Every structure is written in structure tokens, then in C-alpha cells.
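ok so for the tutorial part 2 we go from a plain amino acid sequence to predicted C-alpha cells. step 1 is just haveing the sequence, like this:
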Amino acid sequence: MGVYKKTEKGMNELLARSPGIDARLVSVLILVDGIRDSAEVIRLAKEVGLPVDALEILFHGGFIDKKFKGSAEPAAMDVAPPARPMVPKQTDAASKFKGFNELYVYLVEQTKALLGLRGFLYQLRIERASTVLELKSLIEPLTRVIAKKHGFQIAQEFMRESERLVVAAIAERNM
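step 2 — the prediction. this is what the C-alpha cells look like for a chain of 175 residues:
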């Protein structure tokens, strides 16, 4: 286990007009942000039906690399999960972040589907977001860009669903 980051080859794959790898692997590549550890990326991939061995495939293909090459950081991550007291906390954390993850996945998928390459910078902003409020702050600018490209009706549907997911995520965390 460890934290992975995109390599230059991985970034080029995301910028390519037609990806050279499976679209499901591209989705996992988007999840790799240099912040989430591999366990979190695998968990997110499982939730949306992506291959669980995708990180290994991307690593061996040269699309991602370990962020921390020293042994101290990954070793600490490998030691913590087996501890018995951590299991309930991870389960609680997973349930608390379910709404965040649903919003995150929705924004990434819709940005990719509706904006294509134009939405790449927004996808990077979405990747960097670590709170529901940071994701919420991206909804309005995305809605404006979608309205310009696809019209008011589609933008309104995007806004409505995004806001519904924000409310669900906030309510889930009892904020």
C-alpha cells in the first residue's frame, strides 16, 4: 500500500484525444491524485465497478508511480490497517464519505461526458477537492460552462442533481 501519483505518461494519457488504454483504467487514473492512498483508490474503484487490479496495471504500465519512494511512509500505512481498533473507524469513515464519493464520481463523470477535453482543468480541480464544500464551489462554474456548450436545460439538470448530492453528503455527515 502507498500513495501514488500520475507520471508524465499518465498525464499524457489523460490529455490524449483517444486514450490508448481502457476507459475504466482512465477512470482509475483520474482517481490517482497523489493524496489518496491506494486502499482508498481501490475502495472508490470497487464502489463504481472499476477493476480492482487497475492500480497494479497502471503502475506496471508506467502511468503512475509511488509518491513516497522511501520505505518510511508506505511501511507506516501497511502497519496501521491490520490493527483491530482501526477496523470500526474505517467502516464509519467509509460510511461518512459515501455522499462525498457519490458527488465526486458524479462531477467527474459528468464533466468528462459533457465537456470532454474542455473539462480537463475542472477534473483536476475536482481531484484536488477534499471536502464537500470544495466540490460544491465547483458546481456553479461547471454549470455555466455546460450551459454554454449544451444549453440551459442540460445545465439545469446537472445543477439540480449536483445540489441534491451535496445536500445528501452534508446530511449524511450530520453537519
